[in-house]
## 1
Amino acid sequence: MPAVGTDTLANARNRRWLGLRAYDPSLLVWLGAALFLVGLMVFPLGAIFSASLRDQAGLSLRNYVAVFTHDAFLAAIWNTVIISFWVGLLSIILGGLLAWLVTRTDLPWKKAIRALVMASFVTPPFLGAFAWTLLAGPNAGMLNQLYRTLTGSENALFNVFTMHGLIFVMALYSFPYAFSLVANVCDLISSDLEDAAIILGARKLRTAWTITLPLALPALVSGFIIAFLQALSLFGAPAILGLPAGIHTITTQIWTLFHYPPRLDLAAAFSIPLLLATMSLIALQKKILGRRGFSTVGGKGGQRRLVKLGWGRLPVLVLVLGVLALSVFLPYWILLKAAFSRAWAMPLEWSNFTLNNFNFALFQYSDTRAAIFNTFKLGILTATVGTLLATLIAYITNRNLFPGARYLTFFALAPLVIPGIVLAVGLFIVYAQPPIVLYGTIWILFVAYLTKEMPVGFSQAESTFKSIHTELEDASRIIGANRLTSLKDITAPLAKSGLIAAWCFIFIGVIRELSVSILLFAPTSKVVSVVIFDLKEEGQIGAIAVLGILMLAVSFFIVFGVRWMLDRDLVATRE
């Protein structure tokens, strides 16, 4: 019996060694997923570069010459740089300050403040921009009306249809990126150096300025870059607030190049500087975040003592809630008011109360029901296929299934450096002509969303797989299971929470997307974001408010659902 046992163990070891290295019958699935991912990224980018170098005469640099010599194009580039810079600066000021207050002080209501910052993050910037047209429009804006009533002035307090107004609104929905980065760093910084500074007589603000700020500086710079990139690639807010004032950005200028007759060559050439700028800034951000030594002084286990605000707790809390009122409370309130009002600019009294806006938006307006159906169809389909593809790619890269597998990470994260409107230009060029014609159908939007949201799903799946040891997979391989079976029966159930989160994040990204949709939709494939943009042109304020509330409600339902499931699984794991 011992001899048999020893022989069996030896055979098992040999089988394990051979099984893990022998041909896997599921290899075609892994190679197919890898090729599909590479095709998603290569075709649109290749089409953009090719189109940018061609005109009616053939290969030429005339498109680039036109981009960098035409006054309108140069003005759009300059406006984009100025707006993005100030948005980035305001974002790190607001986000960095709030992050420090939430993580390093005894500020009350911290969980509520974090939740409200998340609400600002979830709010689509184009919806926030629309809400601020109702709040700070120069004529009928609610805040300007209130200012005139209180002061008797005939002038507006604030005109949102200006460069300053556009920067202000975009910053309100970009600062959560800086908040998240700085808060994560401040949570790790030990209080040892801060305590030493206080012992030496430094005041609280001087300690924060000379100790905490330098330690968090890489996160602040990274937050600036992310906010800059967010502003660089946005279409909705510049279109809603900038175009009425004659302010063009790169994204709105590309959009105008698609008007009849479309100039795809110029649109492609105009997309390249935006793409290169994004790639450069992402590379810089990764280099900055690659420096790990800045985040902690005493190690992860170092003590972190809160700064006592003393008598300043209440004023600081009012300041924080004031910032959140600008990004959450006031916009949400004006949307609710407009949704239930006959005339949104009038007080919400019983005589002005109505449900007709819901009836019109959901049942009478011809595009709405089809748009809602398309949005949820695309959201569910993209989230499902995207999660599946992201799972396969993350598994390939994490387990290094074949030579060069780790290079797939680059392709999975590539859409991070491709602004949505640039991606739309490439997809239009590829799929508006044979051999594969998808333009005019809902499927071009599906391909666009799948490509754009891939980094979200991949990052979530990859981080989940890294936390799962391979021993159970190896055991299933020893008894004859192939890689795909091991993933389905062993790894995926263990990674359930992370994969559900990936599905939900992709779904939310799809239903709030505008920059891709605005170039690729057809009359039969409109989505809710495009309908909201169209309704803005028609002046249907109440209907926009209804659809905006619907979009926000679905997003928050998904976010809280994910949070609840993750918390439940965490509790189950601890038990």
## 2
Amino acid sequence: MGRYDKSIAVHEEACRVLSGGVSSNFRYHAMPVPLCYERGEGAYLWDVDGNRYIDYVLGNGPAILGHSPQPVLDAVRASLDIGQAFTAIHPGELALAKRLTELLPCAEQVRFDVTGTQADHIALRLARAHTGRDRVIKFEGQYHGWADNILASVTPPLNEAGPRATPATVPQSRGMPETATGEVIVQPFNDAETLNSTVAREPEAIAAIIMEPIACNTGVIEPADGYLQSVRELCDRHGIVLIFDEVITGFRAAPGGAQQRYGVTPDLGVFAKAAAAGFPISIIAGRRDIMEGMTDGVVHGGTYNGLTSTVAACAATVEELVRGNGALLAETEQRGARLIDGLNALATQHGKPLHAQGIGTIFTTVFTETPPLTDYRDYKSSDEVMRLKFVEELQHRGVRTTARGTWFMSTVLSDEDIARTLEAADGALAAI
């Protein structure tokens, strides 16, 4: 019997009733098919064939406390008996909002939503309303949700992407109107000079600069020294709203997000994923004068915003992550740094162009002859075929990572897990 026979059978059946056999396009890329998992506990997942995996996907980031974390489950269970959807403020929601304004540098006010896509969407709407302008700058290779008006140049083929200094705005989905991304200007990440020149041509037209402060979706590329500060100063000079998309970095790069880690405060911040350890919540946080646009004509709604169970999950998760001045995150970052160093050492040992980079709580593995990665073009020029083969060989050895090469660390990983992961990587590199 094959290692994945039951998952293959489940996938064949699922394709008859689920479009593509999955409920998100970002779940297609698994080998030999999207596997079916039946249980998660701590750092591990088990598929229907009984295979156990050390999980570095973590639902694409949310399960930062591992699977089924007891403090979060206890908080959610306690919330279930009081009801879920009141269509009104409830005490837990108010308490969480107060706590977040204490923890998040940009948060004078917050609003709750359900997904990162929706939170990014309202952040852009708030910025346009606040400035009276329409154009938005985003960065090549960065993802801000799948809404039509911002789904551009996330993974553009290099033959369509245009010059490095003046990237084309490339729509990323069929079915988008031709005009959907007409107000989007794409820029290279980590290039302050080019960004300044672009803004100088039409500063009065630009409402917002939206960015992942760490480019997590393609390469886990940190900002160059002084880069975020230069973007902050540029926005201040021209009255542009600076939005940090911290859907991934929020509560992962530091308890207060990447804005705390790098000491640069945006006007608006968007948080999701790790905020509730796997429960669906997102947070829009920012300056009071911008956030109060929602009481002055900026429409933001959502039946499922601020449900008691998701608020309880978020509150419990946040307290776990900030306890002891962020001790859990600090320990996780140290383990992640050891894993990064170990992977790079194995690459040298095997004579393979594997390169690991990022921060200890989230990093990437790519195959490139010219490390480090500094922008999307560097990532896109790496060897995708070899990366996917490495991911597949790791999976065969019980280590699960994302197809794009991103590794999410959970706080429950042990030193033994790190050692087993490096053993699997050793075998995977030998196999490719």
## 3
Amino acid sequence: MTPDAIDDFYRRLAERLPEPKSELAHHDPYTLLVAVVLSAQATDRGVNKATGPLFAVADTPAAMVALGEERLRGHIKTIGLFNTKARNVIALSEILLAEHGGEVPRDRAALETLPGVGRKTANVVLNVAFGEPTIAVDTHIFRVSNRTGLAPGRTPLAVERALERVTPERWKRHAHHWLILHGRYVCKARKPDCAACVVADLCDFPDKPAAAAT
């Protein structure tokens, strides 16, 4: 995809959704961090159902540690891998209290030292909570980047680096959300809705129908 096509790709996504937002319910960096950790191999909808009641009783590191792992498991038992996730949330909360004054650090390396936090989670927190122009590559973004030819890569890290390289600066702040929402609702895994796609004519996907009007 040429630089002009890439710029047009993002422009069209931006016109459709000027201010994209995370679909994970949260109200500060800590609740976002917990929600993202819980979202691994789970849907945002499923996580939100669990975190609504959870955050009503524990929405700070101190409150979460006081809640304890057993009661936390009770709140998140509908989410996959809830035993491991409960252990990680309690442990990261303890580290935030002990090493960061109870605050979520605005630093990738520090975030990645927290239990249950990898590069993707750190990128989400940096982007959504702190406005950093990071791009977290999940399965949706990996698929969209490869299928469309926007930023092909064999691994999530390769795609992330390709996106950082080709995405114009003016689009980087919201690129993560435009791409993930496009993959979630339009460029779906099994049956992409090419007829409703605003970037279909820019896409390299060989099996798409005629390009949608833009």
## 4
Amino acid sequence: MKLKANDINTWIAKEKQNLEIITERVILAEDYEFDTLYKVLEKSGEMNYGNFYYMAFEDGTFIDASGWVPDEDYNPLTREWYVKAKENSGQIYVCDPYVDAQT
């Protein structure tokens, strides 16, 4: 069990670094258009095989590097990962893994 916990801690630390790099790329791009942000997320996912990154903004805009486009009623602002990230102002929040039919 201790080995698994160490593996998980290592993965979380790596993902925190990945998210910090993505944040830096977004800031450095100085272009917050959908296409630019999508490309940043897509390239980050390619560099971290098996991971898909997505982001949401206060206006409800949602960008998913997997290409998934949510239904009109999807509200990312109510999702745990968004709510907790806002509550932790400026800190990275890691929620439970998302499991769907593909994963």
